[in-house]
Amino acid sequence: MRYAPNTRETIRDDAVKFFVEAGLLLRNPDDLHRPTNSGKTVYQIEPSALALLRKVGTNEWPTALKAYLASRKGLKDEMARTRHLARVPVTLPNGSRVALSPGGQNPLIKAIIEQFCQIFTPGGVVLYIGDTENKFVHLEAKSLASLGVALDSAAKIPDVIVHYKAKNWLLLIEAVTSAGPIDDKRRKELKTLFTRCKAGLVFVTAFETRRAMQSFSSYIAWESEVWIAEDPDHMIHFNGERFLGPYPDVTPRRETKKWQVQPVSATPASNIAAGV
């Protein structure tokens, strides 16, 4: 069977996932930690379902169907347990927990929430976490609404959103393992998406390692931040007058004077300063 280009995700979300949820298909039985959106994702017919289907049209079908239906709950419970063991557990700053799908960028998202937030946004509240299996795996809709933010499921939402209440900053964090740093285009998109926000916006791109950042360094937007999980106590600040804070173009008007700073002299051409 042939599929049109760029339809794999649509087929996965609109058809295949229902067979997986029903227990008729197994996703990545050869590697439970493979990301859901990986190009190497494979599906296999669940063995007992396959045995049942082979009896369609035979005299054994009625008896086999009855036995299969009787065993369904046990089968689904076992598959759910197996999937749960492969998930990535994340502890939020308030002590509650969220389980993310395995692989991909989710181990980095775990580091963002459990390390970055503790160091750079103490007392902050995680308002949103995205996941490939569930875009709204964690959503504090009321808290976002109080800040003037309403997230549309069709919008390209950052991977993690954190409200740093002490300074009234909203940190928009992208976890990058293969693509998607906050470049100039993405910064403008986020600025537009959160244009009604009552908190100052801070743009952060997170990487697992310095090596992972190297291929993206020339694309990262000025007036944004970079955090690297292997050096969690440090941040890299790309240009501008302040370290880890919103700029005038993304600061609510009523707070502009509050965050006003004195002009600084020109910085070297590299314009990158590491924060310790």
Give an overview in words.
This protein is of the alpha+beta class. It folds into two domains: 8-86, BsuBI/PstI restriction endonuclease, N-terminal domain (Arc Repressor Mutant, subunit A), CATH 1.10.10; 88-275, BsuBI/PstI restriction endonuclease, C-terminal domain (Trna Endonuclease, Chain: A, domain 1, 3-Layer(aba) Sandwich). The chain has seven helices and twelve strands. The strands form three sheets. An eight-stranded mixed sheet has the order 6-5-7-8-9-10-11-12, sandwiched between helices. Strands 1-2 form a two-stranded antiparallel sheet. Strands 3-4 form a two-stranded antiparallel ribbon. The longest helix has 26 residues, at 61-86. The N and C termini lie far apart (55 Å). The model is unreliable at 255-276 (pLDDT under 50).
